[in-house]
Amino acid sequence: MTEKSISTDTRDLWPAVRRGFRRKCPNCGSGPMMKGYLKVRDTCTVCREDLSHHRADDGPAYLTILIVGHLMAPLLHVSFTMFRPEPLVLFTIFAIGCVTLSLYLLPRLKGAVVGFQWARHMHGFGEKA
Hints:
The structure is a single chain. This protein is mainly alpha-helical. It has one domain (about 15-120). It has 3 helices and no strands. The chain has helices at about 15-20, 60-85, 85-120.
């Protein structure tokens, strides 16, 4: 039975997650991580770090739903109990707010998840080519 060689270099977690949240390369922090809205580049255009190993899958969507739900549900409750707006007005405001916040957070949380995976050497990020 052979063991995979695990890279011994340490990578700081929170700087990598912050860089990913800004949609920048978790290694150098200056190259753009995203090619489109949610498409992660295979390699960084600045430092040539291989980003093709990421496996973000549904994690960013779950995190987005969790955050938006926990922010908007209390606001919905407070606005309904304090101001009693018309139901259609309430629905319109909160629908626009939820969609806007979701569209803002989704690519940033995907970058943060990729940065987390990179910092923890997950899914092949620690292997040397």
